[in-house]
Batch of 2 targets.
Target 1
Amino acid sequence: MSPKHVFSTKLLQWFSQYGRHDLPWQHKRNLYRVWVSEIMLQQTQVATVIPYFERFMQRFPSSRALADASQDEVLHLWTGLGYYARGRNLHKAAQIIRDDYADHFPENFEAVLELPGIGRSTAGAILAQALGQRHVIIDGNVKRVLTRLYAIEGWPGKKDIENQLWELAESLTPMDNLTSYTQAIMDLGATVCSRKSNCPACPVTDLCMAYKREQVASFPTPKPRKTLPVKETQMLILKNDKGEVLLQQRPQTGIWGGLWSLPEYNHDNKEELTNWCQQQLGLMVKEYKIQPVLRHTFSHFHLDITPIVSQVKGPANHVMEAANRVWYNTHQPESLGLPAPVLKILNSHSGA
C-alpha cells in the first residue's frame, strides 16, 4: 500500500469514529444546503456558522426562496457573520440558478465555478460533499494539515506554495468515498491538526514530517506580519422626535456593501456639523454629544468610530426623499442588513 493510500485509509478510519457527523448541513443533505454552508464557512468557524445556517434555512429553505428575497432581508440574516460580500454573492448566485438553471443547482464543476463567490476549493467541496464527485479541496484547515505532513516551508498564501499544496492534495485524494474524505481532512485540520495541535490524537503522525522533526508548531509558516493602519470616521446617531435613528444604505461595492449604516461626518470641525446636516441631509439638529471611540478591526485595517449623538429639530420629512435613507426604530427593527459595529452602537442607544 503506497504512503498516499495509507494516508486516506487512516484518515477515513479516524473519521468514522471521531469525525463530525452531526453538522446541520449533513442532514437532509443536498446541493443547496451544502452550498450555503460552504459559503458561510469561508473564513468562519463551524461553531459560529451553525446558528446562522439554521436561521437561514428556516427563512430560505430553498434556492428559489433565497433568489426571490430582497437583498436587505438576506443581509439582515447575515448581520454579524462578517465578510458581507459572501451574502451578496450568495443572493446573486441564487438568482442565476433561478433564471438560468430552472432552480436546479448545477452539477458540473465549471458551471459551479462560474457562480459568484465560488472559487476552486469551494466548488470542489460542494460537489464532493453533496454528490460524492471527486474534486480536490484546499481550505485553511487542509493547508495546515498538508504543510505539516510534508514540512512545507513558506507562507501558504504565496502562489508557488499554494500550487505545491494543490498538487499534494490531488495526489492524496482517493478515487471514491469523497463525501467522507473531504469532510475528514477538514475535520482533522479543525479539531486535531489545529493551531494548537493535538498530535497524540492524530491518526497520521507516523506519516507526518513535521511531527518526526518535532517542528509541528513551526508549520504552516505564518504570513509576514504588517502593522495594520488605523482609519477614523465619525458616525452620526440622529434621532427624530419618535426616537428613530437615521440610516443610510451604503454603495453595493466596497466595505459593508449594500448594508445600512449611520451617516458619516468626516470633518475635523465639529462646529460645522449643524450646517453639514442641513446641507447634506436636510435636517436641523440640536446640541450633539460625542461618545467614546469604538474600534472595529477588518483584515487589512482598524477602523476607529466616534459616535456623535444629536436630536433632530422638528419634522424630519425632507430626508425621506432619498431612497437610500430610512428612519430606523430600534425597538421594532426592520429586516435590514447592518454592520456589526453599527448594530452595537444602535443597541447601546436603543434606550437613550
Target 2
Amino acid sequence: MGTRIADHWFENERVDDDITLLWEPHVDPLIRCNIWHVRGRTRDLMIDTGLGLASLKEAARHLLEKPVIALATHTHYDHMGSMHEFEVRAVHRIEAGELAAPSDWGRLRGADFSDEMRLYFDRVGYPIPEELVTAYPHEGFDPARYATPPAAPTWLLDDGDVVDLGNRAFEVFHLPGHSPGSIGLWEGATGTLFSGDAVYDGPLLDELPGSDVEAYLGTMRRLRELPVSVVHGGHEPSFGRARLIELVEGYLKLRS
C-alpha cells in the first residue's frame, strides 16, 4: 500500500489579530517549519515558506489582502520552498546565492541523508524516518525528485534594516550560528521576536553545513539581553522571556 495523498497540505491557526501560523502537518518535525503571516496596514509579511511541495500562496489566499513581503530567515530547504511564489523576496545578503540557486542537500527520504547526518540528528533528538513526509501533496509525487525551486532575491537584508508594514516595524537582527545568514525580526514596541532557527523550543542544530558554534554563542548572548514578551521560532511552539533565558543559558553552558 502506497503513501496516501493528503486532502490538504497546510494547516493554519490565528495567533492574534495580526499574526497567523501556518504549517505542513504531513511533514516530519525535523523539517516542519513554522510559517508566520503578519498582517500590516499597507503590506503583509510572510516569514519563511516551508518546503514548497504545494502552493503556499494558494493555501494562504484568505490572508493575502495586501502586497506581501516573503522573507526567509535563512535558506535551509524547509524554510524557503515557496519563496518563488512571491514577487518580493527578502533574505540576508550572505545567503542570497543559496536562495537564487539552492544546493541539493535537502532530502525527503531518510536513505538520502549521509550516515553522519543520520547519526547527528538521532543524537540531538530528531531521528530520521524512512520518509520525512507521511502523505504526498498530489498523485504522482516522487520524493526522490524533490528539489527546492530557485527564487532570486529582490531585497538583500543587513543587520539593522527595518521591515515596515505601515503600522508595524521589525528590525532585522543578524543571528548567525545555525547558518551564516540567519536572521530574526525584532519589534521593540511589542517585545515580539521572530527568531527563525536561531532559537526555538527544541534541539538547536549547530553541526550542519555552514553552522558556526562560536558565532552561535555570540547570537545567544545577544538574545539574552532582549526584553522579549514572546518568541515565535522557526519550529516548535512559541514561548516567553523566561523560557528564552533557559534555552540561551542551556546552550551557553553546553557550548562555552
